[in-house]
Amino acid sequence: MKVFKFGGASVNSTERIQQVGHILKSYQDEELLIVISAMGKTTNALEKVAESFYAGKKEEALQLFEAIKQNHLTIAKFLLVTTYNEALDQLVNFFTEVEWLLHDKPVQEFDYYYDQVVCIGELLSTVIVSAYLNEIGFANHWVDVRDIIRTDDNFRDANIDWRFTSERVENLVTPLLKEYKAIVTQGFIGSTDENESTTLGREGSDYTAAVFANLLNASGQYIWKDVEGVMSADPKEFSDAQLLRELNYDEVIEMAYYGAQVIHPKTIKPLQNKGIPLYVKCFLDKDLAGTVIHNKSLKGLPPIVVLKQNQALIQLHSKDFSFVGEKPVAELYQLLADIKIKPNLMQTGAVSIQICLDNHAEKLEKLAHAASDIFDVQVEKGLTLLTIRHYNEAILQKMVAGSKVELLQQTPETVQVVLKAV
Ligand code: ASP
Ligand code: MG
User: Aspartate/glutamate/uridylate kinase domain location, by residue (predicted)?
Assistant: First the structure.
């Protein structure tokens, strides 16, 4: 069997949903578990609903939600004929769930409400797409993934209970797959043992698909995107970005770590553990080769460029110009851990330490303040972190031309440069 995942962009219009149907019909003979995201920017829109509600702006929250409802109803009306009434019943149930909640007053933490509201996006999209697929002759069974994926109650970043979930997959999903051959379900969401909805972190649908692939011993996971595959750089910024036909898991983890928005980083482990290949395919043209990511080692990869914007550089100088000894360094690492800062790059010198990190105003201020007990602190913002894997001198020179190099670190495999626009 195979696990497919279609992201929000592949179901953001009636034409695109029809295109999903077109792709799936060519996999008619396969056992498929199909994970579908919320349509387009629905998750962002639902986040706004949750925020308004929590800020006590009930009318605004209801209005914002009304727009989301109408959007889905319009798409359902356009796509569905024979299954319309049945789908409408299901949609209305989900609408009502949210509206009831919005009429309450918030008494719990924000993250709890966030999950109860935001999870609706994937439920609505899958109801519509599943019904549509049945109408066009791609028979499938809709599953509420909250009956399968059990999590803890760490709302907005819930952790999967693998034991419970794996039992559910075995006892519920496997028989349904045998019976219907194709299952349509949601990514990104789950539920606690008290039936509260949870979410797994933004962009978490890739991860859900990987969990299923792992537990069902899939022969492959296929992520359908609106790009050709994984590229060596962001094609929007670099016209000479090239398609990477083959990658391995370690390379993808590195790329994600440096800031490439290829695949949700949590996705890799469940696949790697079982050696399941991940295919990144283009849903605009299913016959394009795309990218395959596997466990094999690879030689001769081209330079891969990752840019991370909105970086800050903190410069710490030991106060009396004495050596930066082990004690201040230890204290600094402790500070980073306490404030939950993941440095993107760090360099230690004789009397100074430099740290490049995401420009997260609140955390930055905390760090600068706390570190000023031990060091003289300077902060520079508005920087870019350039990472090139498998670099050569020519591409490095080309990429830094026209900018000021604030910091540079290199290993035989990777070069990283903190750049300032001039
Ligand atoms: N709909 C969710 C999001 O936009 C999950 C996903 O698409 O992966 O973050
Ligand atoms: Mg997405």
Answer: 2-281
